[in-house]
Write a structure and sequence with these properties.
The structure holds two protein chains of two kinds. By secondary structure, chain A is an alpha/beta fold. Chain A has helices at residues 15-26, 38-58, 72-83, 98-108, 124-134, 157-166, 251-267, 269-288, 318-329, 341-347, 364-378, and strands at residues 2-3, 66-69, 89-93, 113-117, 139-145, 170-174, 193-197, 209-213, 293-295, 308-313, 331-332, 334-336, 353-357. The radius of gyration of chain A is 21 Å and the shape is globular. Chain B has helices at residues 11-23, 52-61; strands spanning 5-9, 29-32, 44-47, 68-70. In chain B, 31% of the residues lie in helices and 21% in strands. Chain B has two helices and four strands. Chain B is α+β, with helices and mostly antiparallel strands. The chains are: A alpha/beta, B alpha+beta. Chain A binds chain B through residues 32-33, 35-36, 41, 44-45, 48, 51, 62-64, 227-233, 237, 239-242, and chain B through 9-13, 15-16, 30-32, 40-44, 65.
Chain lengths: 382, 75
């Protein structure tokens, strides 16, 4: 199968990731941070190395501020539900994923409300102005995606964060589609919380995510329990990362994530992005030539997007198109709303789109095969 | 007997402390905090056979909370 659904999760994973998961399961699979024996210490070292690796990739000094979660959604939930109280107000962009929208809808019942600031693709000034206008005296938090998971549009998160700092508002970035392809040096930004998946652009296994805390303000924990330390104390420790990591960690996943981050660091996000962008631009231009194909963005470009492309074919709904691509041509793409109805409202694609996302392992031949398949579909060829 | 372990607590802090000390030329060994030394629950310590006073100062300057010092007979 030609896999172009890398926005959902990257596939394949680098060989060092597979090896690390295997080693964790077969060589030292003890509980990290729970024992004093060699296997437990080795497991804890791997977890610690993962934190250090993430701290280096995202430019923070303290590895303990790297919180390991099970996915980006969990990270966002910790920020949203751990920070917000009754009468707090939040501003989000019009491109947010349901990982932001649904927790905020749930928080309405607890007296939290939110405003959607219109993201204006390719006009950062207007986007920032819209965020500024949406902030009021009750605004505690602004949440913005680093890049749309549907259309690839990048958001000026560093500038929005700087504006939030001036207004005394906390800022959280959803880096699910940006991590691994956008270079980010958090300590030189005003981003307070950076949430991301471990299994997308960081090439780790599914079931891994990160919350990076770049602030003195720490959310309440959402779950409490065993942390392996301070066990006589009935209350949850406040130290990082233990405060947010009750229960046994996903050691094989974290071992793989550590190696996934090493893969990204060795190639560098810039080089990965340059490679993927070249493929994405080729793909976009190929689609652009096809008469019945509708595209919704400008050609992908490093200055304003990540390599994510959405399209539709005239006379064919996106689910049918993805089904034909999968069954007839052996090509995996994502169809539907991509858990981001807000983004579709913004782009007028409420019916959904076909999304194509390349990875560091995609090649030109696969892109050619994909374009050939779509061309056949637009010409109703069997 | 002279004190030779620093009680840290969380394993992440203990590992970070070990790395900081190593950068400063002080070797240490990670270990579970032993019972019977006045710290009543689970956690991790660093066994530091030499320069423990200096080690504690370095960690203090690095923002690491050291819960206390103790002595153990051997490692």
């Amino acid at each position: 199968m030609i896999y172009l659904d890398n926005g959902a999760t990257t596939f394949p994973k680098p060989p060092n990731v597979i090896r690390a998961v295997n080693q964790a399961l077969t060589e030292y699979g003890a509980n990290p941070g729970r024992g004093g024996h060699k296997m437990s210490i080795k497991a804890a070292e791997v977890v610690y190395n993962c934190r250090k690796n993430a701290a280096l990739l995202f430019g923070i000094d303290n590895p303990e501020n790297v919180i390991i979660t099970k996915n980006c959604t969990e990270s966002l939930n910790i920020v949203i539900k751990g920070l917000l109280k009754k009468n707090d107000h939040v501003v989000i962009s019009s491109l947010e994923h349901n990982a932001v929208l649904r927790p905020l809808e749930a928080m309405r019942k607890r007296g939290v409300d939110y405003t959607i600031a219109q993201a204006v693709p390719y006009d950062d000034e207007q986007t920032i102005n819209n965020f500024r206008s949406a902030i009021n005296e009750r605004t505690k938090l602004v949440i913005c995606t680093q890049a749309s998971n549907v259309f690839g549009v990048r958001m000026p998160i560093e500038r929005i964060a700087a504006m939030c700092k001036i207004h005394g508002v906390l800022f959280c970035a959803d880096g699910a589609q940006g991590a691994g392809v956008i270079n980010l040096d958090l300590k030189n930004t005003d981003i307070d919380f950076y949430c991301t998946a471990g299994h997308k652009g960081l090439y780790g296994p599914m079931g891994t995510g990160l919350l990076i805390i770049n602030s003195d303000v720490h959310p309440e924990s959402l779950i409490e329990g065993g942390t392996g330390t301070d066990s006589a104390n009935k209350t949850q420790p406040l130290t990082l990362p233990d405060r947010y990591e009750s229960g046994t960690l996903n050691l094989p996943g974290v071992a793989g994530l550590c190696e996934g981050i090493s893969f990204v660091r060795s190639k560098t996000p810039e080089r990965i992005e340059a490679y993927e962008m070249k493929l994405a631009r080729h793909l976009y231009m190929g689609l652009k030539k096809l008469k019945k194909v509708n595209l919704y963005t400008k050609i992908p470009d490093s200055s304003y997007s990540v390599p994510v492309i959405s399209f539709n074919i005239d006379g064919m709904d996106c689910e049918t198109a993805a089904d034909i691509l999968g069954r007839k041509y052996g090509i995996a793409v994502r169809s539907g709303l991509h858990c981001a109805p807000l983004a579709h409202n913004s782009f007028g694609t409420e019916q959904g789109t076909i999304r194509v996302v390349v990875s560091a392992f995609t090649n030109q031949k696969q892109i050619q095969s994909f374009l050939w398949a779509v061309k056949n579909m637009t010409q109703n060829k069997p | 007997m002279e004190e030779n372990i620093l009680v840290i607590g969380p394993i992440t802090s203990a590992m970070k402390s070990r790395d900081i000390l190593k950068k400063n030329g002080i070797n240490s060994t990670l270990m579970r905090t032993p019972q019977g030394i006045g710290f009543k629950s689970c956690g991790y310590s660093l066994y530091i056979p030499e320069n423990i006073q200096q080690a504690q100062s370095i960690l203090g300057r690095s923002g690491i909370t050291v819960m206390g010092k103790a002595s153990v007979k051997h490692r």
